[in-house]
Amino acid sequence: MSYCTLCKSGSYLLNNTCISSGPQEYWANNDANRCDPCLDNCENFQNEYTCDLCKENYYWYEDACSQSCPSGFWKNTQTRKCEQCSQICAECSALTTCTACHEGTYLSGGTCSANCPESTWRNNQTRVCDNCQDGCQKCETEASCDLCKSQYFWNGTGCSRDCPDNTEKDPANRNCVPIEITSGLKTTAVIMQASVTTALASSSIAAVVSEGNPTLLWGLMNLCQDCFYLLFLNIEYPQSLNYFLEMFSVGRLRFMPNF
Description:
By secondary structure, the protein is α+β, with helices and mostly antiparallel strands. About 20% of the residues lie in helices and about 30% in strands.
C-alpha cells in the first residue's frame, strides 16, 4: 500500500493518496498538487477564497456562504448570492420590490414614495401607506377622515352611506349635519316672538292675568308651552323673549309644557 506525501504534476494529494481529480467540496491546488477543502457551504468553487455557487439555501456575501443577507440586500435564489437592493428601497425581496423604505418615504405596492395613494395615510412609525377606514377618500390617521368617498358621509366616527337620526346628508362636504327646523316651525317661532314683544309693549303680564279673561289666559298658556318647546330645541331667542320667559314662567302659572 502506497503512502504518498507529494504528488507529480497533474495529480493531487488527498489522504496520502495521489488522485487525478478531487471529490466535491475540494478544489485542485495546482501549486501544491493537492486537494484542498473549499469554503464552508460552497458547492462550486475555484480556490479556497472564491465560491462560484453556494449550496442550496446559502448565499454568497463577502467571501462566505451564509443563510442570511444583510440589510439592503436580497437573496437571489438563481445565483445564490446576496444582491443589493434598488436605491429607493431600505430593504427588498427582489431588486425593485421594496419591503421597507428609507426615512421620508412610505411603502405601497412594493415601492417607496414620498406620497401615499388615495385612501391611504402616511404612517411615520412603520413608513408604510396604511389604508384609511372604509368609505374614506382622504385621511391623516386611521381614526380620522378629512373627506369621505363619493356617496359616503362623515357621521362623527366614520363614513357611511346613511346618516344617523336627526341628521341629514350634506353632499357638498360629504358630512352628516343636524336637520334644520322646518320652515313652518320657523315661521311659528317668528310669529310668537312678535306677539310676545307686542304684549310686553302694551301691558304687563300681571295686568293681563288679573283681568280674568280665560280665553286670553289659555292662549298665553299655550304660547308659553310652544316657547318652552322651542327652548327645548335650542332655538336662540331675542332678548325681549328671554325677558318674557323670566316673568311669565311655567312655575307661576302652575303649568307643565306637554313635550
